[in-house]
Amino acid sequence: MNARTAIQCMLVVLLGFVSAGCQMDSRKQALATTESQVALRQIQTRAFDTTNRQLMLRTVIATMQDLSFVIDKADATLGSVSGTKLDGYQLRMSVTVRPRGQTQLLVRANAQYNITPVEDPEPYQQFFTALEKSVFLTAHNVD
Amino acid sequence: MAALFGVQTPWDDEQKIRASVITRKIEERNGYAVRLTMQRIVWDTQGRISRTEPLDESEMYQEFFDKLSKAVFLEAQEL
C-alpha cells in the first residue's frame, strides 16, 4: 500500500465517521418540532362564537367529509374527530373542540402528511375556511 | 421488451377499501341522514402500494344506500 492509497483509505474511514456523527438519533427527536409550541398553536387553532359543541363536532365531521376524509374515530365526550385522506398521499388529521370561556369554542386541527407533521399555516387556513363556510360563523385567530 | 429481459411488470393485485358512515338525526323528518365516504389503497403484485385514492363513483354510493335501504326494511320486518 503506497502513501496515496493509505491517505485515500483514511479519508474514506474519516468520511464514514463524519456521516455517522451527522445522523440524529430518531428516538431522541421523537417529540421535537420545527415550529415553536406557541406558533404551532396559533396556526392550528381558531375560536368560534358559539357554545354548541355537539353542532361544532358534527360540522367538523361534515367538513372533513367534504374534503374527502374518511373518519377514523369520533368521540363526543373528548370532543375529538380523527380522519384520513388518501389521494396519492396519506393525510391524517385530528380535530379537537373545547370550550373557551362562556361564549366561545376553540377548534384545533393537527395534521400529518405521510409521516411528516404539517406545520405550514396554509393547509390549516384552508381547513378553517371550509369549516367557517359549513358552520356559518367566523373563525377568529387566537392570541 | 420487459418479458425479453425477464423483468416482470407489476400489476394491481389487492385492494383495501376504507369507509366511514356518519349518521345524524333529523328531528323535523323523524329520521336519520346517513353520509358515507370511501377511499382505497391498492397494492401491486410485488406488494407495493400502487395508489391511494378517494372513491367518487356515484354508483358505488348508490349501491351501498340501496343495500342499506333493504337492510333497514328487513330489520323493521324482523326477518
Q: How would you explain this protein's 3D organization?
A:
- The complex is a heterodimer of chains A (143) and B (79).
- Chain A has helices spanning 3-22, 37-44, 53-66, 121-135, and strands spanning 45-48, 70-75, 80-86, 90-100, 104-113, 116-117, 140-141.
- Chain A has 143 residues and is of the alpha+beta class.
- In chain A, strands 1, 2, 3, 4, 5, 6 and 7 form a 7-stranded antiparallel sheet that branches.
- Mean pLDDT of chain A is 86; it is low at 13-21.
- Chain B has one domain (13-76).
- Chain B has one helix at 58-76, and strands at residues 12-26, 31-44, 49-54.
- In chain B, strands 1-2-3 form a 3-stranded antiparallel sheet, with no helix packed on it.
- The N and C termini of chain B lie far apart (58 Å).
- The model of chain B has no long low-confidence stretch (mean pLDDT 91).
- The chains are: A alpha+beta (143), B alpha+beta (79).
- Chain A binds chain B through residues 58, 61-62, 65, 68-72, 74, 83-90, and chain B through 18-20, 22, 24, 35, 37-41, 51-54.
Brief descriptors of the model:
heterodimer; A: 143 residues; alpha+beta; TATA-Binding Protein; seven-stranded antiparallel β-sheet; 7 strands; 40% helix; globular; B: 79 residues; three-stranded antiparallel β-sheet
